[in-house]
Amino acid sequence: MTKQIRQLDRVVIRFAGDSGDGMQLTGDRFTSETAQLGNDISTLPNFPAEIRAPAGTLPGVSSFQVHFADYDILTPGDAPNVLVAMNPAALKANLADLPRGADIIVNTDEFTKRNLAKVGYQTSPLDDDSLAGYVVHPVALTSMTVRALADQEVSKKDAERAKNMFALGLLSWMYSRPYSSTLRFLERKFAKRPALVAANVAAFRAGWNFGETTDSFSVRYEVKPAKMVPGTYRNITGNAALSLGLVAAGVRSGLPVFLGAYPITPASDILHELSKHKRFGVITMQAEDEIAAVGAALGASYGGSLGVTTTSGPGVALKSETISLAVALELPLVIVDVQRAGPSTGMPTKTEQADLNMALHGRHGEAPVAVIAPKSPSDCFHAAIEAARIALTYRTPVILLSDNYVANGSEPWLLPDVESLPDLRVEFATAPNGDNGTFLPYLRDPQTLARPWAIPGTPGLEHRIGGLEKADKTGDISYDPANHDFMVRTRAARIETIPVPDVEVEDPDGNARMLVLGWGSTYGPIGAACRRLRQRGFSVAQAHLRHLAPMPANLGEVLRSYDRVVIPEMNLGQLAHVIRGKYLVDAIGYNQVRGLPFTATELETMLEEVLKNV
Amino acid sequence: MSEPVALKLTAKDFKSDQEVRWCPGCGDYAILAAVQQFMPELNIPRERIVFVSGIGCSSRFPYYMNTYGMHSIHGRAPAIATGLSVSRPDLSVWVVTGDGDALSIGGNHLIHALRRNVNLKILLFNNRIYGLTKGQYSPTSEVGKITKSTPAGSADAPFNPLSLALGAEASFVGRTIDSDRKHLQSVLRAAAEHQGSAFVEIYQNCNIFNDGAFDQLKEPGTRDDFLIRLEHGQPITFGAEGRFCVVHPPGGFGLEVRETASVRPEEIVVHDATVADPAYAFALSRLPGLDLSNTPIGVFRSVDRPSYDSVVQGQVEAAKAGVTETPEQQLAGLLGSGDTWTIL
């Protein structure tokens, strides 16, 4: 039959199923196909901490949302236009997020009495009128997949497991996606088991062909490529971009990268990724605990490497004493905190921005460090390089605050020209700097206030450093009151005077009286909300902080030039508290801690309320 | 590599300009002097030697050595030294620690450094007390010890540091005494020659808070009957004229001390530090009684096992082998790997 083709400018699809149904992989493949087509993309994986929660239950539901459009987009979308529900639990867990009229594709094979009972459905929602407001497409995904693979040399179990590829084939047909990258992916993934390659490819094609022939889907959609800056792109998650940024920092500094890490969600993928790049001289050490991980990184920095440790909030808490030692030793150290919902174990696979206080203040004594935060998945690459630049230039620990949302979300990344990346080369001390051939390990560079980095192996510069307070210049142990006061103030000044770029304000018509200030991963939702308000005729200014310590020199002036400052954060107002204290500006906090990113809609509604009262 | 040039260093070259600030009479002075006198033997330039310590009296040690040094934080020296050693295989890295630093707050790092066989020489000064915090019991203090924090006597069973190290898969384990410079240096020599982790327990007297803890092993009247001096390849006998010996009784798991006259010569255990099974060295470590009778000193165990450093560096070298591109070219290739698309 001839299918109608309809043009759309944007679509949000959510793939949802059991943890074992392969929804993350399915979403990832659909994203890759969509990227190949040239749409702009933003993704949001959402999965439980349990690896395999009991099958068919609500806690076991795993989902992957992808938003793609023919223009540049900033978020993974507030509400899906299409839900793929692989079982009753996936339907129940996600239905509330769907607007009326949305398409729901359900795997009817899983809507058994038992599975319905597991999630508290008395009757099947497919049979009553509870889904009346939606366009439901019942598809026997599992049994059709098994039938399609009848001739394949795979077990029934493997055939059933290929149902996600059937779903992917169907969706790929429905949205006219190019699928050659998926076929190549399957060949790579199952390279050692050709029978599985054939089975999964067959399942994919069966799904595609089903879409083409069935009456259930009368419309096929197209979303034209977005107008994007010319260049070569790849789709990338925040954790992957951050890892590549660290490799790049090693290349551009000429120093070996040493990563000390202890596995922790959602930061472990950085350890996995960096462990693959030994040919760049990257050493990764899976330490016995978080403390050893940062200790080893600091030891490597002492020896002339770029020492890095990656973790999440609970790990930063454990590393705190060593970070303070690094403050006293004045050595480079990059600490990556991929934030998750806390306190304690909290919700390890959900996002939050509640470690800002800890990053800024969470150490004993006066122990200032530099703090920066990426605003999007691809920005993690540049944030990692910036963290390394500050650490190496100013010989200081730098905390990089990523979070689960940017770490696991993805977007197209315009590949940078390697030669255009910052030059991070540093000079180690090679000769005495004091009278009569003496070496003064705490004699500072007057510009950067950095002390010499004299690494072991350098003749004539043998010296001792430690956690005890040091005398200015000589670094000898000192209990002198005036010296301690001087050293505390100097350590504060050396962070406070790091030059960082001015904060930029986006205020297209220049008439805004309200400024929305954000930091880190809220950039997308805040930006999307501001755009919507502007499209409706409101004037809104947006500024976003990458540098949290030190803050940009022009920030106070920017804040004071607006009648209202609103600070949305996924915490209870940590940046707002700092801004109020530091700049005496009556900032309004907007806070939620649900473990999920803001939606553009809720921010739009909130900001509109504020605007009415400006 | 060219032949090593004799550096002609002396003990004086290893003394820093810092005033030594241990209590007068502390056993640490003797250890410091012995180490400074031993260092020239290594024939390693001072700049390639690093001492890393944690917190405690012993951990002030790096300040007094004219080498590179780091006085770090409590218990973490093995972790910090691991990062340094793995990333800088050209260095000779020494860890100085105490019984509280290594076995209490830093116990985890110690056992993991040993299991990995990181190329560290770890000197544990064991005085069986907390000195710097003024006299609390330590994880090697005897049960019932009366201290400031245990007025009714300590309820904790102590660690046997050598048993612990052996249980943690240490490839080199030795013990010596602060006051016996010659013996101390002989154990340091063996430790320095060992590739991988070398763990050396040094009995050290704290004359302020736990004075005389090891007197039986030091007093001329008792030491010969208390000390078992292990020598590789030699039958283990001790006491005046070899009055006692060590045997492996049939049917038993461990080693026992007997009167030499009561056993046949072939029953006496011949010390072999290279025995692969750590059970032998473990049995040696269990010989001492609560009164320190039958205390072996010397090298208990010294076996060959690849060091963590060499394996890690080997993987890096293997990955780099055959790379002809510049790092920038490699990076450009890495960034552009995977599924990419181009917009014109």
Task: Considering the chains and any ligands shown, give keywords for the structure.
heterodimer; A: about 625 residues; alpha/beta; Pyruvate-ferredoxin Oxidoreductase, domain 3; Rossmann fold; 4 domains; 7-stranded mixed sheet; 6-stranded mixed sheet; B: about 350 residues; 8-stranded mixed sheet; 3-stranded antiparallel sheet; 10 helices; about 15% strand; globular; oxidoreductase activity, acting on the aldehyde or oxo group of donors (chain A)
- How many helices of chain B? The count is 10
Largest interface: A-B, 70 and 58 residues
Any idea what the shape of chain B is?
globular
CATH architecture of the domain at 9-231 and 291-307 in chain B: 3-Layer(aba) Sandwich
- Cα radius of gyration of chain A in angstroms: 27 Å
What do we call the CATH homologous superfamily of the domain at 9-231 and 291-307 in chain B? Thiamin diphosphate (ThDP)-binding fold, Pyr/PP domains
Number of helical segments of chain A?
20
Structural class category of chain B: alpha/beta
Fold and architecture overview:
By secondary structure, chain A is of the alpha/beta class. Chain A folds into four domains: 4-223, Pyruvate-ferredoxin Oxidoreductase, domain 3 (3-Layer(aba) Sandwich); 234-420, Thiamin diphosphate (ThDP)-binding fold, Pyr/PP domains (Rossmann fold, 3-Layer(aba) Sandwich); 427-480, no CATH class; 505-612, Rossmann fold (3-Layer(aba) Sandwich). In chain A, the strands form five sheets. In chain A, strands 11-10-12-13-15-14-21 form a seven-stranded mixed sheet, with helices on both faces. In chain A, strands 3-4-2-5-6-7 form a six-stranded mixed sheet, sandwiched between helices. In chain A, helix 12 links the parallel strand 12 (306-311) and strand 13. In chain A, helix 4 packs across helix 6 and helix 6 (163-174) crosses helix 8. Chain A is globular, with a radius of gyration of 27 Å. In chain B, the strands form two sheets. Chain B has an eight-stranded mixed sheet with strand order 2-1-3-4-6-5-11-7, with helices on both faces. In chain B, helix 6 (181-193) links the parallel strand 5 and strand 6. Chain B is of the alpha/beta class. Helices cover 27% and strands 17% of the residues of chain B. Chain B contains ten helices and twelve strands. Chain B has a domain at 9-231 and 291-307: Thiamin diphosphate (ThDP)-binding fold, Pyr/PP domains (Rossmann fold). Chain B has helices spanning 27-38, 77-87, 99-105, 107-116, 161-167, 181-193, 223-226, 278-285, 308-320, 327-335; strands spanning 49-53, 68-71, 92-98, 120-126, 172-177, 198-203, 227-229, 237-238, 244-247, 256-259, 295-302, 340-343. At the A-B interface, helix 1, strand 9, helix 9, helix 11 and helix 12 of A face strand 2, helix 2, helix 4, helix 9 and helix 10 of B. Chain A: Keywords: Oxidoreductase. Chain A: Residues 20-207 form the Pyruvate/ketoisovalerate oxidoreductase catalytic domain.
